[in-house]
Backbone:
């Protein structure tokens, strides 16, 4: 019997998949518990629409990530910070500060956990930084820390 899964089922499939289950298993376990629904025309249409919607969402996210990469790639962010003697900063420049600066300058929202720096930014200078915008899409920028 063909059913569309509404939840993940070990040994059978993941949520949203069309699978073939044994008749008794489907009628006595899956359907009464609301884990699956019978694969009729309406269920198949809903499954198709859900897949198309998921694909459209992914395509939109990839397009936005590529636009953000074009805006950010090769740019230099200038961040002003206070320091003590010998140019050593009070604290350090964190990915959160870099994300805030990107949002202010370029109006692009970047998650601070997606920003990786090569070194800890604790002195004045220029540092390389990599921003993961989407799976496989990264932008490399420079962060210049000055007084």
Residues:
């Amino acid at each position: 019997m063909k059913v569309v899964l509404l939840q993940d089922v070990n040994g059978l499939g993941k949520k949203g998949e069309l699978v073939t289950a044994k008749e008794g298993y489907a009628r006595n376990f899956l359907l009464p518990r609301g884990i699956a629904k019978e694969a009729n025309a309406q269920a198949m249409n809903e499954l198709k629409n859900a897949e198309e919607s998921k694909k459209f969402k992914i395509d939109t996210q990839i397009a936005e990530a590529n636009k953000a990469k074009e805006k950010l790639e090769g740019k230099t962010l200038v961040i002003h910070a206070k320091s003590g003697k010998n140019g050593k900063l009070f604290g350090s420049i964190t990915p959160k500060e870099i994300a805030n600066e990107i949002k202010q300058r370029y109006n692009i929202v970047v998650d601070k956990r997606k920003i990786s720096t090569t070194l800890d930014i604790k002195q004045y200078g220029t540092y390389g930084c990599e921003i993961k915008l989407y799976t496989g899409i990264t932008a490399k920028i420079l962060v210049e820390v000055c007084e």
The radius of gyration is 25 Å. Strands lie at 2-5, 18-20, 36-38, 76-80, 88-93, 115-117, 121-123, 125-134, 137-146. The chain has a mean pLDDT of 90. The domain at 2-65 is CATH 3.40.5.10 (Ribosomal Protein L9; domain 1).
